[in-house]
Amino acid sequence: MTPSSTTTSSPTASNPADPMQPGARRQKRHGRGNDGGDALIRPGHTSTSYTQLARQLVTTLPQAVAKLDPRHVWHSPVMFVVWVGSVVTTVQAVADPSWFAWTLSIWLWATVLFANMAEAVAEGRGKAQAATLRASRRTTTAERRLPDGSLETVAASDLTIGDVVVVRPNEVIPGDGDVIEGMATVDESAITGESAPVIRESGGDRSAVTGGTTVLSDGITVRITTRPGETFIDRMIALVEGASRQKTPNEIALTILLTVLTIIFLLAVMAMQPMAVYSGQAQSPVVLVALLVCLIPTTIGALLSAIGIAGMDRLVQHNVLAMSGRAVEAAGDVSTLLLDKTGTITYGNRRATQLLAAPGLGNEEVTRAAYVSSLADETPEGRSIVELAAAALDSPTREALDRLPRDGATFVEFTAATRMSGADLPDGTAYRKGAADSVARWVTSHGGEMPSGVVTEVDGIASSGGTPLAVAVQEPGRAPRVLGVIHLKDVVKPGMKERFAQLRAMGIRTVMITGDNPLTAKSIAAEAGVDDFLAEATPEDKMALIKQEQLGGRLVAMTGDGTNDAPALAQSDVGVAMNTGTMAAKEAANMVDLDSDPTKLIDIVSIGKQLLITRGALTTFSIANDIAKYFAIIPAMFVILFPGLDALNIIGLASPKSAIVSAVIFNALIIIALIPLSLKGVRYRAAGSTALLRRNLLVYGLGGIVAPFIGIKLIDLVVSHLPL
Amino acid sequence: MTSTLSSFVKQSWAGLRAMLVLTVLLGVLYPAVVWGVGQAVARDQAAGSLVSVDGSVVGSYLVGQQWTGAQWFWGRPSASGYAGDTSGGSNLSGTALTDEVARRASTARLDPATAPADALTASGSGLDPHVSQAYAVSQVPRVAAARGLAESQVAALVDAHVQGRVAGFLGQPRVNVLELNLALAALSGRSAG
Amino acid sequence: MSDTVSGLLTIAVLVAALAAVHVPLGSWMAKVFTDTRHWRVERLVYRLVRVDPASEQRWVTYAVAVLAFSVVGIVLLFLLIVFQSVLPLARGASMNVDTAVNTAVSFVTNTNWQSYAGEAGTSPFVQTVGLTVQNFVSPAVGLAVAIALVRGLARSSGTDLGNFWVDLVRGLFRVIVPLALVGAVVLLLGGVIQNLTAPTTVTTLSGGHQVLQGGLVASQEAIKELGTNGGGYFNANSAHPFENPNAVTNLVEVFLLLVIPFSLPRTYGVMVGDRRQGWTVLGFMASLWALMLTAVTWSEVHAAAGPLGALEGKEVRFGVWPSALFATSTTATSTGAVNSMHESFSALGGGGALFSMMLGELSPGGVGTGLYSALVVAILTVFIAGLMVGRTPELLGKQIGRREITLTALTVLVMPLLVLVFTGIGIVAPLVTSQMLATGPHGLTEVMYAYTSAANNNGSAFAGFSADTPYTNLTLALCMFVGRFAPIVLVLALAGSLVAQRRRPVTAGTLPTHSPTFVGLFVGVAVVVGGLTFFPALALGPLAEALS
């Protein structure tokens, strides 16, 4: 039942080969953190052990004590009942002192304290991070450009929307804004933790700069787009601190349910007293309070807010900032995921994957021709052809070919007009490579012809979604010949198919968005294993797709970075903006991914689900616990009156008093024991929901029934030696 | 709020009209139809499965009676004394029931340890027309002695009046006391005659 | 044949009959409540009542109509009872004012708790014109509310839940009345009386006198069971030979009281367009019923082997098994009719009947009330289960958010609140304790049984408790009223909230609410919530009695 003491890296079972795998990334950042200076690193964050937890608990003790203020406890109705019970018990213990009454009151107060500690530990993590962020936000002045072009020095806090400031190298950008003049490298490690500088330039999708980041080279002019105190970094601080934390819809719903359960148990215990009086054995208030506290769902009541805070925190660990908890919950419900093809599903460049010789010709000749004709082609496609061909040639041949330029060969550069590149050798031999139709035109215009076998190959590649290039040669005095075909295609990143299969198991449909023609799109979609695709997509198409999905009642998640993505990001239920993107995109989205990694959505969905599962599992556990507590306490209360009720004392607790004390102690300690689980979250596995339900029911339902029997018995073995 | 109130008043009038219409249909027409069917196809049952001797009604096969005198087969103890205008059980339980059973045993001069369960327990209706075969059989010596009949004769009579489970499996095997006593009276009359 | 074989065969025949009937009846009811045409007689009624059958109602209007109709019903019935001495067929029946209040509330709320003895308290005129009419309309009201909730789940992005008057009239004319007519004739043929004869005194063979009662019993008996009402024509209720003359009528009566509640899951499945959902609810109801039947039967059979046997309060013609079957079914359906005296059951047998009610009348519950109570528990289950698979909980594509869970939780709260508060007060109030027949734990069970029966609109009793005092009559009436109408208003509000939602499509991530795992959890939630709520009380009542 107890959670394992070490945490694993990621909530999803990630493919280790996947460079985007979050665990790997975090480890990398972690290493840097140990060198110091990384804003987001909190020591021990990813490997919670019990010693570390114990240290955290001790350090949060003062806060936890401060949170005993009833005005704070009131926010959790369940814990408020425990608080009132503790007061009642303490008054009783003072009025009529006994070991029993004092032991109970101490443990009841401990129950409230433990709940506060759980919350404080969860909050503490965010607070540490906020402090680091705050430290990075030290800029106090800005150079504001006046309408006449002159500059004045003003406090950064006086800047308003529309002000234009000039930022020089090694200066801190005073506020969020867009670059309107110039280009600079900017160190954004204060926000992203990424030390490699990024380029920011006016115009386009890389114009946004964030206050608190530092210009490294060159100067830029920035138009301020946010009010002081509302900058991105300010909001980030507020978020990680939990200052702006509001209960999420689902959390409110659960709180209502827990409150009603508490009322029912309150009634059950209150009605018990007259029945006990009638039966001839009135119970002391201390015992009734003990019973009540054991019955009401204190475990989940104590950990509920910690679970929520920790959920947001886990997102931060994945370098995602959620602007609201609502979005995190919604992420768990996402049923349609829109992913841009380029950069997310594929590497984004078409690469040569195959060289096909024309019918009747050898591979050697086409490989040489492809190599020579691409030597001067600096496009990524060209480079990939050289790489592919080089691998197939032996080194003497390659070296001979590499000498060609020195031997007087001239190269024909690729142009949009000719759509061909090539090389003319000194002996008059001309190699050409390019779009199949261009090459065909070149061949026929020089008296050659396109063999039908090549045409078939070209069509085959095109219909498979690839891009066919033809390679031809014209030897002096002869008609050009087509040597073969190069197959270019967009390469899907490794591991994507597995990830999409995982998403499918989670019940999420993936739609690939691409500007490609439908044929290409279809082929890549099939290769990557996405469920659907939107080809030749315009921003309007994207928007229409989102609306259509939502009309069908589906929740849509998407990522985006450009300004033209902003409306779609705003429309989607979970919109994740890349941190490299424009301010408009970040404003429209409800999450910002600091790593600008589009596959992060998968982790976000997992975290959303994990958040709900943790709540559900601990609620089930909490209620299932009651069964054992009844069997411990009820016989203890009435065994003198009805000796037969001892039959219900099935775990053989030593005495009525030790039974009651043991149940209360168990009830308090289980909170501490479950803090790591509530911070880490219940493991989420992409499995069918019924299988998931069965597993969690078994672990937290059945476990919740059995665990307290064992726990209470063990505590009783100790407690029975106390002079109660 | 006022709209809800006026809506309530409006719906109440509809409710009143509905109640009146439904009362005519369900409170008058429906029982009348069932009554009519009863008169047509089940007159005897509708009237209460009455038993007449020499033209006068002496009871109903369905309703148990109080039998006084050793010469009759007795029914079960009754919390309402088989009055007929009241019905119901003793509602006793626990020690109160134990005491009551002991009292019934001493009244009927039965040994609680060996007496059939139905001989010492009262029915739920207080009008149970049946006893178990065992209880009927246990009364044979007393009845035979009181009537001066051979025990075998009376025992055969009891045997003839044991009703098995309905359709072989529903309910319990049982003896209808009124039927048995009617046959007993007839037998005595024949022997006397 | 042993009693065990006979008992098991009886149950088998009952289950087979229910299994055969629930599909056609359930589908028929779905058709009835989705039909766009009106029968001629229905149109006549709408004209007389002056309602427009074509107009639909939002949840508030629907709830107002239910309340208005019921309040009018209570007032009319109260007046009928109070003035029965000047109405036809008076025959000396009379009732106190507080008893009349209790009785009026009792029959309108489908409880049919009787603080009076059936024979003496009400005249044949009141029995027929007052009580029989309420026996018809009160289940029809429950049915209408259940259908409104189902529409809330079935419809997408709407505002209206249907028209209460249409649902009421159709439920009566197309479902309840035809079935009642068939049931009444079958019972009549089986020996249940149907006459207008005045009580006559006859001289018995052994020279004693006995009063033989008459009455329009068969017509009332059929609807008493079919409508899960339970108010007996006679004090002994279905133990009385004129109400339940033999083992066949007994089985017919058990069948009648279970048939509509067990058919409604089918109606639900058909109406929401996913029959598997109906199977889930049916599986849930049947599991709980089987569970309670096993517990009560085991306890009674066990007691039968004891020194006193188990026949106190039971009829010889039925025996132990059919009595346990009737007791379980009547407490599981909010009927409250009895063919044996529950108070004289063994401690755990009577406790089982009590717990059957404490589960909240959902196994299968009363006509309509069973379905809507089960759906409320389903929503609670979906909430927990949904969280455990990482989705915002939803039932049939309707999200269970803040408003839905609030209404659900409050619905669940009503019954325990009434039972615990009034039992708690009653057990130390001399006004109440002086009316108890038993002492010790059994006395506590008596009082607890009374308030549980009232708050659940069941109507059965540990009849040793003399409830005919002003305090008990009025507090029980309060429990019956609140226990009936607070959940109805909350459930209609829930339906209103659900009907406004768009139905979300089912994806692989949606938690299927028709898997055996879900049914298991569904049953678990009902048992655990009921058990945890009432365990302390049960420990001091039936458990203490059984273990001493």
Describe how the helices and strands are arranged.
The complex is a heterotrimer of chains A (724), B (193) and C (548).
Chain A: H1 22-35, H2 50-66, H3 70-73, H4 77-95, H5 99-136, E1 141-145, E2 151-155, E3 164-167, E4 177-181, E5 183-187, H6 189-192, E6 198-201, E7 208-209, E8 214-217, E9 220-224, H7 232-241, H8 249-279, H9 285-295, H10 298-317, E10 320-322, H11 325-333, E11 336-340, E12 346-357, H12 363-374, H13 380-392, H14 395-402, E13 410-412, E14 420-424, E15 430-435, H15 436-445, H16 452-463, E16 467-474, E17 481-492, H17 496-505, E18 509-513, H18 518-528, E19 532-534, H19 539-551, E20 556-560, H20 566-571, E21 574-578, H21 583-588, E22 591-593, H22 600-638, H23 656-680, H24 689-719
Parallel strand pairs in A: 11-18, 11-20, 18-19, 20-21, 21-22
Antiparallel strand pairs in A: 1-2, 1-3, 3-9, 4-7, 4-9, 5-6, 5-8, 10-22, 12-17, 13-14, 14-15, 15-16, 16-17
Chain B: H1 2-41, H2 43-47, E1 50-53, E2 56-60, H3 94-108, H4 117-120, E3 130-131, H5 133-147, H6 151-160, E4 162-163, E5 174-176, H7 177-192
Antiparallel strand pairs in B: 1-2, 3-5, 4-5
Helix pairs in contact in B: 5-6
Chain C: H1 3-32, H2 40-49, H3 59-82, H4 97-108, H5 118-121, H6 124-154, H7 164-190, E1 200-203, E2 209-212, H8 217-226, H9 247-271, H10 275-304, H11 320-332, H12 347-358, H13 369-388, E3 394-395, E4 398-399, H14 402-428, H15 430-433, H16 440-455, H17 470-499, H18 516-547
Antiparallel strand pairs in C: 1-2, 3-4
Helix pairs in contact in C: 1-9, 1-11, 3-4, 3-6, 3-17, 4-17, 6-7, 6-8, 6-13, 6-17, 7-8, 7-9, 8-9, 9-10, 9-11, 10-11, 10-12, 10-18, 11-12, 12-16, 12-18, 13-14, 13-18, 14-16, 14-17, 16-17, 16-18
Pfam family, one (chain B): KdpC
InterPro entries (chain B): KdpC (IPR003820)
Organism (chain B): Humibacillus xanthopallidus
